[in-house]
Structures are given as structure tokens and as C-alpha cells.
Write a structure and sequence with these properties.
The chain has about 500 residues and is mostly helical. It has three domains: about 90 residues; about 240 residues, Fumarase C, Chain A, domain 2, CATH 1.20.200; about 70 residues. Helices cover about 65% and strands about 5% of the residues. The protein has 20 helices and six strands. The strands form three sheets. The protein has a two-stranded antiparallel ribbon with strand order 1-2. Strand 3, helix 8 and strand 4 form a beta-alpha-beta unit.
Length: about 500
């Protein structure tokens, strides 16, 4: 006896809750992101089927004419209707209405919603990656321009949040440009993985029709075809590659944000955020709140969270057709790309308007005995001491300057007499070193210019690195332009093929 109870009446599909929380939001996302990709894919598929002799030219012409009419009406004309499962079925029904079932009913020959849906999301994501990539190039240009203006701007460099050694602002920005360049390559790699065609995989085993998968890929601007029909449907690595690129950039920019927030404090007094980004206090008239950096910090966290959602959603799911990496993955993926793009655009404007308190920074560059390393190095180079002995001498000098530190800010309190006394304690004999040598070793500018090796802080070394980074940016500009041209050319070829029918 069956003890399972059942409702007296069956609820027809879709249940109102399912429609409200699943179908309509997914439909709205498809309207926003997949409308044009879907129409382009319909054109390419119809053209290919006709070229392969699977359907007649008249059939393909009728489908393409119907697609053109739907495109002219715009996405808003195909709003969600209860009972229609998704945008694909809505548009297919319109095509069948306009062409008749004999022609419109052939649109899905040798194709499934599986390979079509995977292709459409890839087409939407690649557009967003290209947009992010173009904006990232603009950010790199802004940072590079600012760095060139500050090749000689001294400032304290920090390790463990404490003054460590003198640097230049350009040296710091060259580091920022380096990781931005690497992140540009991460987005380029993600784009290459995304821009592969799954079309022709059908449900996931391919099709018995003799189709031309490469032709469809070319008509839609895909760089290559995914040979494995199983991976065409089950792939998630293109999603995680994109998410990881977003994460890497968000993490890097968040660390810069933390630095700039410190530099913008009155205690640091290092830089000036432009007034166009400053908000005042409702009660404290003296306040200049650099809120743009706080908004950036929050939005970078948002981008990081969306990207992490993508990665987690791809985790521990079946390797095949599943909603986790279809309709459900599009909102966090597109939101993550949109959030990081907002941050890039904001940061570009911040760097374009940022100014430094150069005189103050130059004074601070030598505070906290930041040139002590150069004094130890000079004792090695110019007095012939072993480095460990030189290190010990300078360390004793620093410790002996505690009383002086109460009156002065650092290295200027170190005298030749202190050097000789420390050398006597460490070595048991005097050291041959002059007051001029000591002054030069303790000078922040001399410290900086002495470090002129590859990637060093010297203006010549930093300038050379900036030149290399600028050259790399020019290559990346060309690469992004070529990707855009490839998509435009595919659209041109497809449109011409439709017209030629």
C-alpha cells in the first residue's frame, strides 16, 4: 500500500514561486545580456545549416528575416510572460510565428539549448572582459603619467608599516604598474579561454548532422572551437579564469587603497586627494574626508565577493550540464566584472587628479634612520669593512641616538664622533671615514641614486622600468584593439552573408 500523500490537484508549470524567484530573474538577465548574442547565434546557425545543405536557402532566409525583425523591435519588446520558460523559447516562438513551423521549426536542428546557452554566456562575458581590459589600459596610462612626473620625488618607503628606506613615488608606482600589467595578462588569458565556441556540441555528445562547427565559430567571432563536446557543455574553467582575474586585480588595488588612505591622513601629509572626491563633515568644518578611497575599498570587496561566488559555485558540481554554471552563474559573474570596472574607472580619475606634498615628503624621506642601510654599505665600499661589522657599527650608532631622537627626527643626529665611537666598540680600532662621506651616506637623495641596478629606486633605473612598462602597455593596447576588430569583422562577415542570401 502506498502511504505517500499527494496534493488533490497538481499545480501547473511554473509554480508562482518558481516563476517569481527563478524564471523571471533569469529571463531579465537574458534580456539584458543575451538578446543580441542569441540573435547573432540564430543567424550564424541558419547560415551554416544552409551552406551545409541541411536546410534550404529559402529556409535560412526566412529565419534571418525573422531575426532581423526581432532585432529591430529591441529587447524590451520580448518581455517576460508567465508560462514561457526562457528567452530562447520566446524568440523561437516568434520566429515560428513569422516563418511557419516548416521553416521556423528547423532553427534548432543540430543544436541544443545546452550548447547555445554556453555560447551566449561566453559572448556576453567576452564583451565585459574587453570593456574591463580597455579601462585597465586607461588606468595604467594614468598611473604611468603620474610616475613619470615623480621620478625624483623622494618619500619614505615602508616595510611592516614602519619607515624603512628612502624611495621615490615613481618607484612605488612602478610596482603598482607591474601588477596592473600582470593583471592585464590575466584578463587576456581569461578572454582567450572564454572566446572558444561550444556550438555543435548539441546536448553534449555532438550531432548526427554533418555540420561545420568552425564556420559557426568564425561567424560569431570565436577564436577556436572546443573539440570536446563534453567539455563544451561542462566547462567551468573559463568562468573561474575570469573570476580569478577579477580577484587578483581587486586584491592588488585594495592594497594600494590602504596605502593611499594612510598617505592622505594629516599625520602622513603625503598627498592631496582632489577636492572633487572630498566630502565634508556635517558638524566638523575642518574635515576633508577622502571618501572616494573608502568607496573604492568597499567596491573592491564587492567585486572580490562576486568573483568568489563564481569560484564557489563552480565547486563540487557535476562535470556536465547543470544550472549552477548556466543561468545561475551569470548574475555574480557580470556583477563582478561590472564592479571591478567601476573601481578601475574611479581609480583612473583619482590618479589623474592626485597631487603630492613633495617638500614634506622629501623632509620625511630620511626620518627614522631610513638611510642606515646606505651608511653600512658605504662603510663596506669606502672603508673596506665586512658588511656584518659595518652593520653592527651602524646599529650601535642608531641605538646611541635615542636621546638625539627626542630632539631631532633621525639620521641628522648621527655624527662622525658617534661613528668613530661605535667603530671602536665593535672593531677595537678607528675607522677611516670622513664627515663628507658620512653626510653623503646619510643623504636620502644619495641613497636613492646609489641604487641604480635593474629595477632599483634610482631615477635612471625607475625610468628604464617605466619605459619597459610603457612598451608593454603599447603591445596590450594593440592586442585589445585586435580583439575588438575581430568581433567587429565577424559581425560584418555574418551580416554580409545574410544580405547575400
Amino acid at each position: 500500500m502506498n502511504n505517500l500523500s499527494s496534493p488533490s490537484t497538481q499545480q501547473p508549470f511554473p509554480h508562482p514561486a518558481y516563476s517569481r524567484h527563478v524564471l523571471q530573474p533569469a529571463y531579465d538577465d537574458a534580456q539584458r545580456y543575451l538578446f543580441e548574442p542569441m540573435l547573432a547565434a540564430h543567424e550564424a546557425h541558419a547560415l551554416m545549416l544552409a551552406e551545409c545543405g541541411i536546410i534550404s536557402v529559402e529556409n535560412a532566409k526566412a529565419i534571418c528575416a525573422a531575426v532581423a525583425g526581432i532585432r529591430a523591435g529591441g529587447a524590451d519588446a520580448v518581455a517576460y510572460q508567465p508560462g514561457v520558460e526562457d528567452l530562447f523559447f520566446r524568440i523561437e516562438s516568434l520566429i515560428i510565428e513569422q516563418t511557419g513551423p516548416d521553416f521556423g521549426g528547423n532553427l534548432q536542428l543540430a543544436r541544443s539549448r545546452n550548447d547555445l546557452g554556453q555560447a551566449l554566456s561566453r559572448m556576453a562575458i567576452r564583451e565585459q572582459i574587453l570593456a574591463v581590459s580597455a579601462d585597465l589600459l586607461a588606468l595604467r596610462a594614468a598611473v604611468g603619467d603620474l610616475a613619470q612626473r615623480h621620478l625624483h620625488t623622494l618619500m619614505p618607503g615602508y616595510t611592516h608599516t614602519q619607515p624603512a628606506q628612502p624611495v621615490t613615488f615613481a618607484h612605488y608606482l612602478a610596482g603598482v604598474l607591474t601588477f596592473l600589467t600582470k593583471d592585464q595578462q590575466r584578463f587576456a588569458g581569461a578572454y582567450a579561454n572564454v572566446n572558444e565556441s561550444p556550438l555543435g556540441a548539441a546536448a553534449f555528445t555532438g550531432t548526427g548532422f554533418a555540420i561545420d562547427r568552425q564556420r559557426v565559430a568564425e561567424l560569431l567571432g570565436f577564436e577556436r572551437v572546443i573539440a570536446s563536446t563534453h567539455h563544451s557543455i561542462g566547462a567551468g574553467d573559463h568562468l573561474t579564469d575570469t573570476a580569478f582575474a577579477v580577484q587578483s586585480l581587486a586584491v592588488g588595488l585594495s592594497r594600494v587603497t590602504k596605502d593611499l588612505l594612510f598617505f592622505a591622513t594629516q599625520e602622513s601629509g603625503a598627498l592631496h586627494i582632489d577636492d572633487s572626491f572630498i566630502q565634508i563633515s556635517s558638524i566638523m568644518p575642518q574635515k576633508r574626508n577622502p571618501v572616494v578611497l573608502e568607496h573604492l575599498r568597499a567596491r573592491l570587496s564587492r567585486a572580490l565577493g562576486y568573483a568568489q561566488t563564481v569560484a564557489v559555485q563552480c565547486h563540487s558540481i557535476p562535470y556536465g550540464d547543470t544550472q549552477d554554471i548556466e543561468d545561475e552563474i551569470l548574475p555574480p559573474m557580470m556583477a563582478g566584472l561590472a564592479a571591478i570596472q567601476e573601481c578601475i574607472q574611479l581609480y583612473t580619475a583619482v590618479f589623474e587628479t592626485l597631487t603630492l606634498n613633495e617638500e614634506h615628503l622629501a623632509r620625511r624621506a630620511g626620518d627614522g634612520f631610513t638611510t642606515a642601510t646606505e651608511l653600512a654599505d658605504a662603510l663596506v665600499r669606502e672603508a673596506g669593512l665586512p658588511f656584518r661589522s659595518a652593520h653592527s657599527i651602524v646599529a650601535r650608532m642608531v641605538r646611541g641616538s635615542v636621546e638625539a631622537l627626542e630632539r631631532e627626527s633621525g639620521a641628522e643626529s648621527m655624527s662622525l664622533e658617534m661613528l668613530r665611537a661605535a667603530a671602536q666598540e665593535v672593531l677595537g680600532l678607528p675607522v677611516d671615514f670622513s664627515a663628507e662621506q658620512l653626510a653623503r651616506a646619510l643623504d636620502p637623495r644619495s641613497f636613492v641614486e646609489a641604487r641604480n641596478g635593474l629595477g632599483g629606486v634610482a631615477s635612471s633605473s625607475t625610468g628604464a622600468l617605466l619605459g619597459e612598462l610603457t612598451a608593454a602597455q603599447a603591445v596590450d593596447v594593440t592586442a585589445v584593439e585586435q580583439k575588438r576588430q575581430q568581433l567587429n569583422e565577424a559581425e560584418r562577415v555574418r551580416s554580409a552573408a545574410v544580405r547575400s542570401m
